[in-house]
Write a structure and sequence with these properties.
This protein is an alpha/beta fold and 419 residues long. 21% of the residues lie in helices and 24% in strands. The protein contains seven helices and 22 strands. It is globular.
Length: 419
């Protein structure tokens, strides 16, 4: 069976690695629109358009360090990522790890670089009993168009490349700098500035704290619960923005400040522009429907989407999902009845944009995949390490990245120390 993997980032490499272990059953091709593996972990100093003429995919900024310890970011079958002095890793270290992973499992032979997937459409063969996927691809070097057929599709295009920019009344009157975190690269660009950062999720907090070393002051604007951690003195939490009048930013509680720059850390939009409507997948405010187990296309189960969950440890989850899809393709796993899968795919959160945020549920979810697919669950240190680290992060947002996570020899318990 021919399997098409769309994307050569962490999820795409993981899909290749697991299916490549079964080459008696599968022929693999991965299409990557850039010239490197790594996806969002490939740092690009430029913003706007890439050398291939497409919008720059990566949202990396120069000094990023992971907000998870690299000890639990490892794929479980390739635990080569280790912290140096700290457990948080740079994007260079993560990219190097992914490149080594691809080399170790000999994955480069399956990847076609500078190749854009433009269109994916299902067609029926053999008296409507079998789905064949028609895939249109474009060589970005020659602009040649090709058409291929596959028995399975694994979508691994990521979820951190299409900026979500909410409309704010009066934003068009603001004379200063406006950008989304997707285009943020260096804190020195904001030296001596007064800045509003919109959003207090991972990127908002990280970028806000990073800016404090250069900016005069940073206002972290969000509508969530107030952060209880000690924060830099140059950072002040404020309410969400109600309106903007030139340089003056008005907040929901009636307060206002004058600033020089606005940075949106408001997340990203999940989008699959290459999927034909006949694929049956819809995306509404980042709620992808109808998919079983946050991955299987219920209408066409030979398609899966590997990387749409958030508030999770991504690389180990990719590993579990890839094995689950592999078990299905090998006939070792029978999916439930369609009505049961549709029930699983129903919205279970108050807001659609939180539909695929798992947080504490990720561990039971991963275990459910392993149990159904008949493969090994993740070692317990992934869960214990995540919970210990998240507790540290919540109480010490300013300095939690300076700690080290130590995994015990039993692969269960962990310790955290300040190096």
């Amino acid at each position: 069976m021919r399997i098409c993997v769309i994307g050569g980032g962490a999820a795409g490499l993981c899909a290749l690695r697991n299916f490549a272990a079964n080459l008696n059953n599968f022929e693999l091709v991965a299409f990557e629109k850039t010239e490197k593996v790594g996806g969002t972990w490939v740092y690009n100093e430029k913003t706007g358009l890439d050398s291939n003429g497409l919008p720059i995919h990566s949202s990396m900024y120069r000094d990023l360090r992971t907000n998870l310890p690299c000890e639990i970011m490892n794929f479980p079958d390739y635990r080569k990522m280790k912290g140096d002095k700290f457990s948080t890793a740079t994007h260079q270290q993560i990219l190097s790890y992914l490149q080594n992973y691809a080399q170790h499992f000999q994955l480069y032979q399956y990847i076609q670089f500078n190749t854009l997937v433009e269109h994916v459409k299902p067609e029926f063969k053999d008296d409507d009993s079998k789905t064949v996927w028609k895939v249109q691809i474009k060589n970005l070097k020659t602009n040649q168009i090709f058409h291929e057929e596959f028995d399975g599709i694994i979508v691994c295009t990521g979820q951190y490349y299409q900026p979500n920019v909410p409309k704010i009344p009066g934003i068009e009157t603001f004379p200063g700098t406006i950008l989304h975190s997707h285009s943020y690269r260096r804190p020195e660009d904001f030296t001596s500035k007064l800045i509003v950062v919109l959003g207090a999720s991972s990127s908002g907090i990280d970028i806000g704290i990073e800016l404090c070393a250069h900016a005069d002051h940073v206002y972290l604007s969000h509508h969530g619960e107030r952060l209880v951690s000690i924060l830099p003195p140059q950072l002040t939490q404020v309410m969400e923005i109600s309106r903007i009048e030139k340089n003056k930013i008005h907040f929901a509680d009636g307060n206002s400040v004058q600033v020089d720059a606005i940075i949106y850390c408001t997340g990203y939009l999940i989008t699959f522009p290459f999927l034909d409507p006949s694929c049956g997948i819809t995306v509404d405010n980042n709620y992808v429907y109808p998919i079983y187990k946050h991955m299987i296309n219920i209408n066409y189960p030979t398609m899966c989407i590997l990387g749409i969950n958030n508030k999770v440890v991504p690389f180990p989850m990719f590993h579990m999902k890839a094995q689950y899809f592999l078990a299905y393709f090998k006939g070792e796993l029978i999916l439930p009845a369609k009505n049961e899968m549709m029930e699983d795919s129903k919205l279970k959160t108050e807001k659609k944009r939180h539909a695929h945020a798992l947080a504490e549920q990720q561990w039971s979810f991963n275990n459910s995949l392993a149990k159904a697919g008949g493969f090994n669950p993740l070692p317990p240190f992934y869960e214990t390490g995540y919970k210990a680290w998240w507790s540290l992060r919540k109480s010490n947002l300013w300095h939690y990245k300076d700690y080290k996570l130590i995994i015990a020899d039993d692969n269960k318990s962990v310790d955290i120390s300040l190096e």
